[in-house]
Amino acid sequence: MTSLRKGTLRIEGAADPVSGVLPILSGVRPTTGDGVGADDEMRRNLAYGRPHSLVPYTRQWGYDRERAERELPTVVLENDLLTATFLPGYGGRLWSLVHRPSGRELLHRNPILQPANLALRDAWIAGGVEWNLGTTGHWPLTCEPLHAVRVTAADGTPVLRMFEFERLRRLIVRIDAWLPAGSPVLYVHVSLHNPSDQVTPVYWWSNIAVPESAGVRVLSPADRAFHFDYVSDLRHVDFPGTDGADRSYPARAVRAADYFLDLPEGARRWIAALDEAGSGLVQTSTGGLRGRKLFCWGSTAGGRHWQEWLSGPGSPYLEIQAGLARTQLEHLPMPGGATWSWTEAYGRLDVEPAAVHGSWREACEATAEALDRLVPPERLDEALGEAAAFGPHEEWLAEGSGWGGLEGYAGFPPPGPAQAPWQELLSTGRLPVCDPPAPPITGRRWREALEKSADDWHAYYHLGLMRLADGEDDAARAACELSAGARRTPWALRVLAFLAASPEEAADLMLEAHRLRPDLRELAVETLDALLVSGRCEAALALIEALPYRGHGRIRLAEARAAHAIGDDDRLRRLLAEGVQVDDVREGEVSLDRLWLAVHPGEPVPARYDFRMSDAGSST
């Protein structure tokens, strides 16, 4: 028998991140792919599709590292072999997959819930299987709720359906998960639909965290990989033998690294992480999910610190991943009106240990044979067809946002308070004035409506954001100048600072914006960054002295940077000795270790300041 039920996860966790009011104006940098061994198709995909801006999304932050027992709603699928637990409130993440006969957890089930700054919008949590749609990076909805409903398969099997409207790419994503009676694998069917008539860049990766130990070997049918180590450029290398080491054992890696496995055409799509006994998790899919990847944190002090920062002590993990393209630096063009879908399977795989830890070819062949016995490829094709016949929504299990309802898409609940200003634009032809501004939105019909009707600071501001998202910087500047001319607000001034011709002009505009809203901490942090970039460190220190929240980690970091820049290293030493804890330190950020080494040359960097993802002797 198979069951689907609501449940509760009790976990030691920090408070949920909060969404700010400042849209993310910057985008994602393009990659050329020159010299990486890429073919013409990959070069096109590397150069294509990076968003000019992350509007309409705002930053998710405000979390700290104070944890207490929390209760999170879950949805659980279970048959006699597997128990799968999902977190609809965290992007629909598959949090746990337990093999019931052995009691073994197949995923990295994080013992804590600790947001950290690794996602496109900042907040991200480690563990389980994360679904990623949008652009290079952890997706905008990773810490947002998805809609979740119960549907039923033709044979009566209950199905968990999670879905949402992803607003950066304006795509509808649907994730169906089910466990047929007696099935040794969890099936996950993903459907992406482009409701517009325009070609849209698409990116998808299923990121699977599994426990790391010395005996875990990652296997996939590839003997070449595209390698990125956070220090050098992407390069095409032999796999697993790279630079004289066997990279299929992640615990042996020194540096954090990505290996995008170059699976040959026609090969079955799978990746597995098997331990010293030849047992572990396998993921496989129909052919639409082409890419596979291995990620490891490495064994440097910084890599170990990141693991503890995300999962607490004694809980190391690695990631095996599956994506639409061969690397996470690529986007694929999706035609208007198109729907892309595939089916994935997750389960426990057992292979003879001597084969798993023998030669690469022997290990891959033995794993592939065991996988064929566990779930033959034709069974995945059958599951892909079964998903098309799933029934209608029967019971609401969790609710996401109202943005799909605002767009009028079938199956979505009606819009809520966040969408009310935009509903008024639809019904009256005018966007009401809101301060703080209405949540941002993008899309052709919304822009066309504002192009016709904008005549106040609020409408001009949103028109500027829409033009910025469309890559029209000059037009965005013009709209925000009209907004600032109608009324000086921090919102339009911030966009004008982002588009300013010089760091000095940007700093002046950010200072004015801060004076209008000195209570807004995220604006103060950006203002300090602008002052430091322009070299106005004394002004930054003066601003900090007046802040009531100067103890915040980002503010203390700005104080430390400014003190060092003006030569006040005694102040920097004092700050470091007291402690500068930046709860939202960014993946790859090296500000803390550089400040330490600036005033303690030749001394080891304390673990609390070491987030370097390369060798201890260099910074990324």
TrEMBL record:
- Its recorded name reads DUF5107 domain-containing protein
What InterPro entries would the database entry show? Answer: DUF5107 (IPR033396), TPR-like_helical_dom_sf (IPR011990)
Spell out the Pfam families in the cross-references. DUF5107
Q: Which SUPFAM superfamilies match?
A: TPR-like
Where in the numbering of this chain does the DUF5107 domain appear? 53-329
The highest taxon in the source lineage is Bacteria
